[in-house]
TrEMBL record:
Keywords: Membrane, Transmembrane, Transmembrane helix. Residues 116-319 form the Nucleotide-diphospho-sugar transferase domain. The lineage of its organism: Eukaryota, Metazoa, Ecdysozoa, Nematoda, Chromadorea. The chain crosses the membrane at residues 20-41. This is Nucleotide-diphospho-sugar transferase domain-containing protein. It comes from the Eukaryota.
Amino acid sequence: MPNSENHSGGLSKISNSRHYSFSVVVVLFIFSVAAVLPLLFSMMSIHLFRQRNVIMTVDRVAAKLSFEDIHNDYDFVQFSEGLKAMQKPPYIVFYDSSNLDIFLNHICNLEFIPNALSRLVAISFDTNSHMILQEKYPKIPSVVVDLDPIKESLEETYENRRYIIYQLVLLTRTRVCASLALRGINYWAMQQDSLWIENFESMNIEDRYSDQYMLFDTVGNEQLPEYKRMHGWICGSTYFVRGNPTTHQFFMQVDAFMRSHQSPDSSIMTYLCGHRNYKCHRLPRWIISSSDYFRGTRETTPVMIQVDSDQKEETKMELFQRANFIFRHDNGTCDRRAVHKLRDAVRLAFPEKLKTLGQNMYAEGLLTRLYYAYKHIFNVDRYNNKVFLTVHYTLI
C-alpha cells in the first residue's frame, strides 16, 4: 500500500506539473501575441497610409493633365485625324527620354520588316525626345503629351516618387487610349522594348478576330506549372483596340480604377475583361509573349516578344546589349544582319534563366493550396483576377 500511495502521489505531481507547464505555455503565448499585435497593426497602418498617399497623389497630379486636356489638345486632334486616315490600324509606341535609345533600336528592328514601319506612329511624354525623333525620323507621325511639368511638381525626395510617376505614365496612356477609342480609331498600343522576330504585320491579327473589341497579350509560360494561377492575366505591353463606345468606356473605367486603387493598368484590364460585354480576347503566346518566354525551353519562337528587365542595376540598353538585341550602329544606321539573326539571338539570350527551368519560383505551402482549393470549390475569384489587382502592393 505505501508503494501504491507513493506511486499515486507521484502521478499527481506529474499531472500537476504538466498542468502548470501547459498554463505557462498558454500565458506566454497570450503575452507573445499581445506584444506582437501592436507591431503588426503598426506595420499595416504605415503601409496603408503609404498606399493611400500614393493613390491620392496619383489622383491629384493626374488632374493636371485630364482626359479632356488630352482629347481636346489641338496637336493631339491633328495627330488623331492622321491616324484615322491610315489604311490599317497604326502601331502606337509610347516613349520618353528614358527609353528613347530603345525606341530608336526598335525602329531599326522594324525597318527590315515589310510594311511595319509605315504603320508606326509615336507618342512621347516629353518634348526633348519628341524633337529628337522628329529630327531623325520626320516621316513617322508623332505627337507629344508632355508630362515633364507634372514630374517637376513632385520633389525628388517625395516618398515613392518613382512609382507615382510610373503610375502617372500608365494612366496617361490609358487616357490616350480612351480618347482614340472615342474617336472610333482602331489601333495597336505597343512598347519600344518589344522584339519582332517575324513579320507580325503580315498576319493581319485584327482581321482574324474581327468579332472581338480588344486583343491582349498575357503573362506566363505554358511549360512552367507555377503560372497556372496566372492563366489569362494580361501583360499589357501589346494590345489591339477597336475604337467604339464600349472600348472608350472600358478605358475610362481603367482610368477611374487607377485613381482609387494601387493597381497597374494590366491587372485592372484583366479584371474588367471578366465582363463578357467588353469582348476581350487573349492572344496565344506563340504570337506575342512576355519575358516569361525566356524561362522556358524556347523550342517555339514567338512572332513578338516583350523584353522586361529584372535587374535593377542594369539599364534596358545594357540588357539588350548583353542579349545581342542591338539593331542600330553607333552612327545611327540600322544593322540588317542583326535583325536577320534575331531568332538565334532570342534562343541563346539569358542563359541564366534556363538554369531555373526545373525550379518552381512560386512554390506554394499547404495553407496557400488550401486557400485556392476553397476558392475553387465555392467559385470565388476563380481566375484570381482580384488577386492580380494586389500585385503592386509590395512595391511601396
